[in-house]
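Regression test case RT-17, inverse folding.

Input:
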């Protein structure tokens, strides 16, 4: 089995990682932790440029390494070991997460819920809600 946890490095993202690690340990699944980079692109002289690309990648790798540590610590607390893989993705978060889940055969997705106001959530929607809408596997939203 493969469980996918998407994290943005937030407190709720860490909670999703902890929950996913607990489930992976219980069901002897591989835990795949993904972070999505959403670089702002600019068109300059006909060339696509991604300002701050190196810094964004470094930050994404830091988020993933922290998440890996959170997952391993959680499994250790439960007296288990789990296999943890990490993946840096790019694009629109919900699309990148659900496409990656499909491509890699994930059995479930875990995401943290962002605390958006009702008004903003109705207009924009949240990543978690979009993942639920687009996923073809079960999604657990962690609050």
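Golden output:
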């Amino acid at each position: 089995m493969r469980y996918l946890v998407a994290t943005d490095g937030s407190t709720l993202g860490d909670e999703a990682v902890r929950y996913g690690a607990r489930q992976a340990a219980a069901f002897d699944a591989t835990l795949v932790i993904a972070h999505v980079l959403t670089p702002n692109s600019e068109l300059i002289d006909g060339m696509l440029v991604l300002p701050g690309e190196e810094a964004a990648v470094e930050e994404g790798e830091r988020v993933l390494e922290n998440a890996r540590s959170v997952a391993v610590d959680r499994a250790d607390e439960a007296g288990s070991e789990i296999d943890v893989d990490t993946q840096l993705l790019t694009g629109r978060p919900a699309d990148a997460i659900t496409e990656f889940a499909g491509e890699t055969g994930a059995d479930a997705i875990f995401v943290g819920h962002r605390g958006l106001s009702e008004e903003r959530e109705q207009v924009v929607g949240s990543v978690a809600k979009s993942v639920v809408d687009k996923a073809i596997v079960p999604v657990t939203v962690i609050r």
